[in-house]
Amino acid sequence: MPGMKRAPLLTLLLALGTPDAGARVRLGEALPAHPWAEAGREVIVVYSHDCGDLGELWGAVMSAGLPVRAVNAEDVPAPAPAGLNVWRGAEATAFARALRVGTYPAVLLVRGGRVLNAWEGTFRGDLGITPGS
Predict the structure, then answer these.
(1) Rounded to whole angstroms, how far apart are CA atoms 48 and 63?
(2) Which residues contact 23 (CB under 8 A, 6 or more apart)?
(3) 43 is a domain residue
(4) Does the residue 1 lie in any domain?
(5) Contact 125/41 with Cβ under 8 angstroms?
(6) Number of domains in the chain
(7) In terms of CB atoms within 10 Å, which of 11, 55, 59, 76 comes out highest?
(8) How many CA atoms lie less than 13 Å away from 105 in the CB half-sphere?
(9) What is the pLDDT of residues 25-37, one digit of tens each?
């Protein structure tokens, strides 16, 4: 997608499962403290002001039929689609850092408060689920 930062090689290798004690977002990991009630399966988009145009990304996650959480990290306000309650400020940035997000935007597929899948700067619109399932 235009405007998305490219993941460094190390982040890509970590995302593919290369073991490392300092790994980025880990599958199965519980979410850090956040302000919303968990909703079974949900999508969390962690982004910053310098991600560029995220129109396609927002369209893809909004069409998945799951609750979408917007986390605007790094203390500079950036827009999200109308109707989304955006979490901003120091706590949102702390959330992203506690998850060890390495590249924005990051899209997390979550179930029961645990990360099922994560895309850091590489999301192409497919969450790997059937909408409504």
Answers:
(1) 21
(2) 14, 100
(3) yes
(4) no
(5) no
(6) 1
(7) 11
(8) 31
(9) 889 999 999 999 9
| Cα 51 from chain centre | 12
What's the CA gap between 33 and 52, in Å, rounded? 27
Q: Which residue is it, tokens 């990290």?
A: 73
Structural domain that includes position 41: 27-120
SS3 121: coil
What proportion of the chain, given as a percentage, has pLDDT over 90? 53
Q: What is the CATH number of the domain that holds 37?
A: 3.40.30.10
Helix (H) or strand (E) holding 99: helix 90-99
For residue 18, give Cα distances in angstroms to 10, 23, 29, 41, 88: 9, 9, 16, 26, 32
Does some domain include residue 7?
Answer: no
85-125 per-position pLDDT tens digit? 999 999 999 999 999 998 899 999 999 999 999 998 878 77
Give the tokens for residue 29: 């990991």
Is pLDDT of 54 > 80? Answer: yes
